[in-house]
Structures are given as structure tokens and as C-alpha cells.
Amino acid sequence: MLAALGRELDVNYRSVTYGRRSMLGVAARLGSLGCAKELLRAPWCAATNVADVEGWTPLMEAAFRGNEGMAAALLAAGARDEGFEGSRDFGKGQVVGPHIASAWAEYRGNHRIKSMITGEPSTRTSTHPLVKVNSTPFSI
């Protein structure tokens, strides 16, 4: 479909109707790894750090949603662990929570993704803080 639209297509254009996300941001939000990989290849070479209206980058979406394949593809294409500073008010209260991808990965229990982003080995052994590791149903 991209080829049919022509090489002049600006894949980094921020959609007016979809939260000001770029095409790569939409692919990351929807978990479409194939589409994201195509957008990252030449001739498209989508920018990896284009944030939407709320400040979310494609890497933040992947980290929040636990999509390891997406995070790996974005990092390989040059995505950086960055986001917006402070909080933002959209008329419904302030947006709170982590403002960088690695913090979202940790907050959501996606420790392997956090390790991929930071390059630090994961010290967590479970995928969620309430999950016991190496326990049986009869463990206390």
C-alpha cells in the first residue's frame, strides 16, 4: 500500500484524526510489527521518536503494551528512551505516570523490554510484582 501511495508520501506526518500520531506511532499502538518494519525500511525510513499529542513515542507504546518485537525493531532503527517532561492537562485532569519508555516498561512489569531499552540486565525474575516465581499452588 505504501508503494502505491508513492515515494513522496510523508510517513512522519502526524495525523489530525488519530491523536496526532505518525504512521509508525499508529503501527506501534496497534501492535502491527509488519507495518512498523516496512515503515522503518528504505525508502520510507520513518522517524522513530515522533511523539503524538500526548507525548507518546512509538517506543513508549511498545514498552507500555509489552510488545518485545516492536521494541526491538524500534531500538534497532534508532529509537531513544525519551518522552515529554512534566505533566499535561487535556481538560480531563493531568496526564500522570512515567514519561519515558523504560519507566513504562518497568511500571507495567515488562522487565525484558526495560532491559532491552536500558541495556542493563534485568534483576526481576517475574513479569508482574505479585507473581511468585518457582511456586506451586500449595506454596505459602
What can you tell me about this protein's structure?
This protein has 7 helices and 2 strands, in the order αααααββαα. It is an all-alpha fold. The protein has one domain (2-81, 97-118): Serine Threonine Protein Phosphatase 5, Tetratricopeptide repeat (Alpha Horseshoe). It has a two-stranded antiparallel sheet with strand order 1-2. Strand 1 and strand 2 form a beta hairpin. The protein is globular, with a radius of gyration of 17 Å.
Number of helices: 7
Rg, nearest Å: 17 Å
Backbone structural class: mainly alpha
User: What is the CATH architecture annotation?
Assistant: Alpha Horseshoe
Number of strands: 2
Spatial shape:
globular
Distance between the first and last residues' Cα: 55 Å
Any idea how many domains?
1
Q: Per CATH, what is the topology?
A: Serine Threonine Protein Phosphatase 5, Tetratricopeptide repeat
**Average predicted confidence as pLDDT:** 82
Helix proportion: 25-40%
Major sheet size, sense and barrel closure: 2 strands, antiparallel
Which superfamily, in CATH terms, is the homologous superfamily?
Answer: Ankyrin repeat-containing domain
- Name the CATH class: Mainly Alpha
Summarize the SSE layout with pairings.
Layout: H1 2-5, H2 23-30, H3 33-40, H4 58-65, H5 68-76, E1 88-89, E2 94-95, H6 101-107, H7 111-118
Antiparallel strand pairs: 1-2
Helix pairs in contact: 2-3, 2-4, 3-5, 4-5, 4-6, 5-7, 6-7
Can you give me a brief rundown of this structure?
Helix content is 37%, strand content 3%.
